[in-house]
Specification:
The chain has 384 residues and is α/β, with parallel strands linked by helices. It has eleven helices and ten strands. The two termini are 28 Å apart.
């Protein structure tokens, strides 16, 4: 019997020449501007990342419309995905690239109309030229990142923005339903960036929002929910393990972004109150707990790696970061599978919490062992 595939998706935006600002914008010159297209990125992943991953890992791609893919480039991108054996895992309207006054929630009717049109064109592309690169069983997610719908002035207008957001998303859901209604749709909550204050800042906000859309607009919220973003919960000081419980309890985990602000492993700095660092997935007890939760729930959708290379990484090192992120998560999943949850529950029921802590510490050690085994194999493959 063939081993079931574990589906991971790689983000186009990870492969950049450098972020600029307070860090270099050209540390990876081979990935600069027009010289490195989205199709080039997909071919690179197929050649340099995929061969280094365990055989049971399948790959998909995540894209922003219209910054990373558009009507002019979609044929080349789709051809590269077919060539690399990759699928469309996630597509999102890149409204933040165009509008900074609320996007689909904007108080400016012209901006709101334009942003809504961008969302519909994103759906058109997914159901049109990209439909041929959907996975036959795991359909892509349309993710709504809240980077454009935020504000910086405290006023009664915030409620008007929220109502505009509900109307806009309801319209997009109806439009997607007319196109086929096959995609999953999820919010990606974030407390800040690109505004000091955001609509839909937390997982709970997203769950409340979808329930309001069902009640006020009659939207079928099956397959609607949350893009589970580890780092966004971390950066506001929330518990992404409990976030996972809420998402799974509401059948609302439609996609995952396995990244980290870093502070939970005691090695990489970051955490609450810091900016969005976007490290790759890390091995720690919290991630092993989440791996166990999704295994119990039967989650079998895409696990994305919304991550950035370090500001000092060259291209080779940045590619290695992606490999490490995928393997780190697979190691957490393996550790969760071998953890004796019956014994863990028994210890907790009997209030033997120190024993439970020991078991989780051992699980982290196991995960590092699994990582070393898979990563060592990946380096050998890289030399072949």
């Amino acid at each position: 019997m063939a081993e079931e595939k574990s589906m991971h998706s790689i983000c186009r935006w990870t492969f950049n020449a450098g972020k600029g600002g307070f860090v270099p914008s050209n540390v990876r010159p081979q990935w600069a501007g027009d010289r490195f297209s989205t199709a080039d990125m997909i071919r690179l992943v197929g050649e340099k990342v995929a061969p280094r991953l365990p055989k049971h890992v399948g790959l998909g791609v995540e894209l922003h419309y219209d910054a990373e893919i558009c009507e002019k480039t979609v044929d080349d991108v789709a051809a590269a995905m077919k060539e690399a054996g990759m699928h469309l895992a996630m597509i999102t309207p890149g409204a933040h690239c165009h509008w900074a006054y609320g996007g689909i929630a904007s108080l400016d009717p012209k901006e709101r109309e334009a942003a809504n049109t961008l969302g519909k064109r994103t759906v058109d592309l997914a159901y049109g030229p990209l439909k041929d690169v959907w996975h036959p069983e795991i359909v892509p997610t349309l993710v709504l990142w809240n980077g454009s719908f935020g504000y910086d002035i405290a006023s009664v207008a915030v409620r008007h923005m929220y109502n505009f957001l509900k109307k806009s998303v309801a319209g997009l859901c109806k439009y997607e339903q007319e196109k086929g209604g096959e995609m999953y749709i999820g919010f990606e909550p974030k407390p800040n960036e690109g505004h000091p204050a955001m609509l839909i800042p937390t997982v709970a906000s997203a769950l409340v929002f979808w329930n309001k859309l069902a009640k006020e607009y009659g939207i079928n919220i099956e397959n609607k929910g949350v893009n589970k973003e580890f780092g966004h919960s971390e950066m506001i000081g929330l518990d992404h393990v409990y976030d996972s419980v809420e998402e799974l309890d509401n059948d609302a985990m439609v996609h995952m972004h396995l990244n980290s602000q870093g502070y939970n492993d005691g090695v990489i700095l970051g955490g609450p109150g810091k900016y969005d660092i976007d490290n790759g997935a890390r091995i720690n007890g919290m991630n092993i707990a989440i791996a166990g939760l999704i295994q119990e729930s039967g989650y079998a959708r895409w696990k994305g790696h919304d991550m950035q290379a370090r500001a000092y990484d060259n291209e080779k090192q940045a590619i290695d970061r992606v490999v490490r992120s995928v393997i780190s998560w697979e190691a957490c999943e393996q550790a969760a599978r071998v953890l004796d949850t019956d014994a863990l529950m028994k210890a907790l029921i009997q209030r033997e919490t120190a024993i439970a802590e020991d078991m989780m510490h051992e699980s982290v050690v196991n995960a590092h062992g699994f990582f070393k085994e898979m990563y060592t194999g990946s380096k050998v493959l890289a030399q072949v």
